[in-house]
Design brief:
It is a single chain. With 153 residues, this protein is α+β, with helices and mostly antiparallel strands. The protein has a domain of 93 residues: Ribosomal protein S6/Translation elongation factor EF1B (Alpha-Beta Plaits, 2-Layer Sandwich), CATH 3.30.70.60. It is built from three helices and four strands. Strands 2-3-1-4 form a four-stranded antiparallel β-sheet, with helices on one face. A hairpin with a 2-residue loop joins strand 2 and strand 3. The longest helix is centred in the first third of the chain and has 17 residues.
Length: 153
Amino acid sequence: MALYEHVFLARQDLSPQQVDELVERFKGVITEGGGKIGRVENWGLKSLTYRVKKNRKAYYTLMDIDTPPAALSEMERQMGLSEDVLRFLTVKVEAHEEGPSAMLQKRERDDRGDRDGGRGGFGDRPQRSFGDRPDRGPREDRGPRRPRDGEGE
């Protein structure tokens, strides 16, 4: 059996329970075909970069799958026929990642809030404006300006 990561996008007008029912239906197809499902992550309702089948948002779901290719093909066939699934992508991997995916780690990082107190800077560094450059002094301290080629003649 081969290892796969599978992501699918479900319509925005579904309820989270209906998305869970879709996941269970596709899990059943894989287990009937002799495969196993690892982790399943619901990434929630996210905005799409562009409209897909008249939808501006979609529910994203990641599944780690260990299955023979025939069962995977059957699941993808059923996803293609389902009106609730907008898009899906399956990638063959050497090993499944441990722990939460990058998307869930990003969500946890975003949930921590504004750590710099709204200053907009980085850590303890003061926020500078565009003209504040510490490596250059005022013009008078640097001496006269040299003309460029073709200037001042």
